[in-house]
Amino acid sequence: MAAAAKTSLEAPPVISLDHVTKSFAGHDAVSNVSFSVPEGSFLVLLGPSGCGKSTMLRMLAGLDQPTSGRILFNDTLVADGNAGFTLPPADRNAGLVFQSYALWPHMTVAGNIEWPLKVAKLPAEERRIRRADAMQMLGISALADRYPGEISGGQQQRVALARMIAPRPRIMLFDEPLSNLDATLRVEMRFELLKLHAATGATAVYVTHDQVEAMTMATHVAVMNNGIVEQFDAPDTLLAEPASAFVAGFVGTPAANLIPITGGRWFGRVADPSLLNATGHAMVRADQIEVVSESGPHVIEVELAEIVPMAGRYLVSGLIDGIRITTVTNRAVRSAEKLRFRLPGAPAAIFDTQGTRLS
Ligand SMILES: Nc1ncnc2c1ncn2[C@@H]1O[C@H](COP(=O)(O)OP(=O)(O)OP(=O)(O)O)[C@@H](O)[C@H]1O
């Protein structure tokens, strides 16, 4: 269900994927993916472990060759699976940062950052300027003479980022770059990365399985599942108009509830014309469910599963038929309480048994 990128009102595409597939031993890690990334965007490849995010990024970096399909950077063909062609990483004007920092331990911070500039054979003065600019942008000028073993993990990641931007690539590729950092540092570095993105004007592609990271950083998100792109859209659109049950259940804090419906009945029991006689799942956002005291139409009894205080409110989850339903409420629910949830008059969306959106 790969949706095309909406590029008509946006900048021209810097990256275009045209029916790209990558197979390993007959299994498609990435399957028939097409989209284009407008210049200056921050695209996040989001999905659960094993969905093909890293494989996609590696093809963009030139570390893996597509089995079929083509990749273009602007008008330049950088990979053509059918022709068995792939442009080497060094010739793509794209920088790459991994989860592991991969710094040279025997080189100083300044030496590490200068290394790709030396490989590119830039003159010494230009190297000095670019090295200083990159260190200043990442706030690590004071660490120039230290060795990687003498700085913290967060500082090492800053060095890896400075090394990536020093050659001034027009495309920046990130593979889970923050996952080795603690929670506080991760939030701080998200902000740093966005500043870097704005300051360089480069187009970024960022791999993560963390939907909060995706929703806070991205201009565009490609939600991946089993090697396919389920939806390619802006974060707000993913939340407001999820194209599939998978997307609805993957994004959002909390993610929307997906309630099973059979023949137009909630949980196969409570008939409701708003369910259109459908069988599959109804999407109900947490704030569409009310915690009530009395039974009545659309009210279901649930077994309390969890109460999470959140910004002055409570996320209350209950279980019914082994399915977890979450609501957000101002009420301080007591843990021993028998819970009743009132479902909304109509769901926010309906998906069939394949997860395809019906309404
Ligand atoms: N070199 C390889 N040889 C064989 N199979 C591979 C290879 N690389 C990836 N795969 C398979 O391709 C699929 C996608 O892997 P990939 O690493 O792209 O997923 P991912 O979404 O990045 O996962 P994670 O978040 O866990 O890194 C997986 O089933 C994986 O086992």
Automatic annotation (TrEMBL):
GO molecular function, one term: ABC-type transporter activity
SUPFAM superfamilies linked to this entry: P-loop containing nucleoside triphosphate hydrolases (SSF52540)
Gene3D superfamilies: 2.40.50.100, P-loop containing nucleotide triphosphate hydrolases
Subcellular location: Cell inner membrane
Keyword Nucleotide-binding (UniProt): yes
Signal peptide: none
Residue stretches making up the ABC transporter domain: 15-251
Pfam families, A to Z: ABC_tran
Keyword set, alphabetical order: ATP-binding, Cell inner membrane, Cell membrane, Membrane, Nucleotide-binding, Translocase, Transport
Protein name: Putrescine transport ATP-binding protein PotA
GO cellular component, one term: ATP-binding cassette (ABC) transporter complex, substrate-binding subunit-containing
Family: Belongs to the ABC transporter superfamily.
InterPro entries found in the cross-reference section: AAA+_ATPase (IPR003593), ABC_transporter-like_ATP-bd (IPR003439), ABC_transporter-like_CS (IPR017871), ABC_transpr_MalK/UgpC-like (IPR047641), P-loop_NTPase (IPR027417)
Topology versus the membrane: Peripheral membrane protein
